[in-house]
Amino acid sequence: MINVTKSFLPPYEEFIDIFKKSWDSGWLTNRGELVKDLEKRLCDYLDVNGLLAMSNGTLPLQIAIKALDLKGEIITTPFSYVATTSAIKWQGCIPVFVDISPDCLTIDPTKIEAAINKNTCAILATHVYGNPCDVIAIKEIADRYSLPVIYDAAHCFGVKYNGESLFNYGTISTCSFHATKVFQTGEGGCTITQDETLYKKIYSLHNFGHKNNTEFQGEGINAKMNELQAALGLSVLPYMDDVILKRKAISDHYDHLLTSAIKKLTYRENTIRNYSYYPVLFDSEEVLLKVSAGLSDHNINARRYFFPSLDELPYVELADVPISRDISKRILCLPLYPDLDLIDVERICGIVNSALV
Ligand SMILES: *Cc1c(COP(=O)(O)O)cnc(C)c1O
Questions:
Q1: Hey, which of 58, 155, 182 would you mutate to test ligand 1's pocket, going by the most ligand atoms within 8 Å of its Cβ?
Q2: What would the DSSP string read from start to end of 3-57?
Q3: Which of 84, 102, 236, 255 falls between 20 and 30 A from 108, CA-CA?
C-alpha cells in the first residue's frame, strides 16, 4: 500500500547509539541531555532563538493561549487541522472564524478587521501546508489593535520567508514533530518566541507551573519532551536537507505529470518551501471522490486534508466562510514522502489524470 505519508527514519543503529546515552544514565525525561541537545541543534538548523521542545504539537497551542492569558474571542482560520480550533475551545476561548484567501488558503487579512470587537484578544492563524500567512498585513492589523499573534506553524519546519525562519514571525509560533510531519520525533513539537519573558512563562507552564523545586507560579501542565523522542529527533535531524530535497523532487515530478486541469496551490513569493504536502484542488467534491476511489482501488491512500472546514465542528458556531467551505470539499493531499518512488508518482498521476476525462 502507498499511504499519503510515511515517516522518514534514519538507520536504526544511529538512533540507538544516541538513545544509549539516556539508557545508560537512566535519565529518561525532565529535560535530559538529549532534549537540551536537540533544542540547541534545532535552533542552529532553523536559525531561531527561544525554541522549547514539547511532547506534541497541540499542547504548545494550548500553552501559548494560556501564557498570553487570553480570554474572549480569538480570530482564527477555519482551514486548518482540528487542533487549531480545539485548543482555543479547550482554553475556554471563543473561535471567531475569518475566511481564507482562495489562492494561498491562509486567513484573508482584508477580512480580519471586520471581525475585531472589544472582546477580541488575539489572532491564531495557520501557515497552511507550510505556505506563509500574509504575516506583514497581519502584523500591521495586530499592532494597530494591540493583539498578540499566534501562528500554528505545524507544517513549517525549515520554511523561510523573506530570508528568515517563518517561525520568527508572530508573538509565538508552534510546530509539530508528529510522525506524519516533515521533521518527526514520533510525537513531539515546540514553541518558538523571541520574547524572553514569554519564553520563561511558557517554560514554567509546560512543566506543571514549577518556579523552582518547591514553588509554583500558576497552574501548569506536563508537556515535556522525553529522551526517547529527543533521541529520534537527533538521529533524524542530520538528514533533513536531504529529506526536503527528495520531497522537492517528488513535488516537481507531480507538477510535471499532473494535467493542467488540476489547480495547485499558490505559494507566497519569497518563500523557501519544505514540500510538506502535495495538495490538489478539483472542480467539485464529486470529482474528488471519484479520484480518491480510483486511487483506493490501487491501494493508494490520498487524504482529505483539511476537511471539514472547522466552523462545521459540532462544538463551534457555524460561520460565514464560503471559501473555506468550498475549498475543504475539493482539496486532496496526494502521497508525498522522501522514499516514494518516482515510478509510483507516475502511476498516481496516471490514475488521477484518467479520472478527470
Ligand atoms: C499536526 C498538526 C497539529 C497537531 O500537532 P500534533 O503534534 O499532532 O499534536 C496542529 N495543527 C496543525 C495545522 C497540524 O497539521
A1: 58
A2: -S-------HHHHHHHHHHHHHHT--SSS-HHHHHHHHHHHHHHT-S-EEEESSS
A3: 255
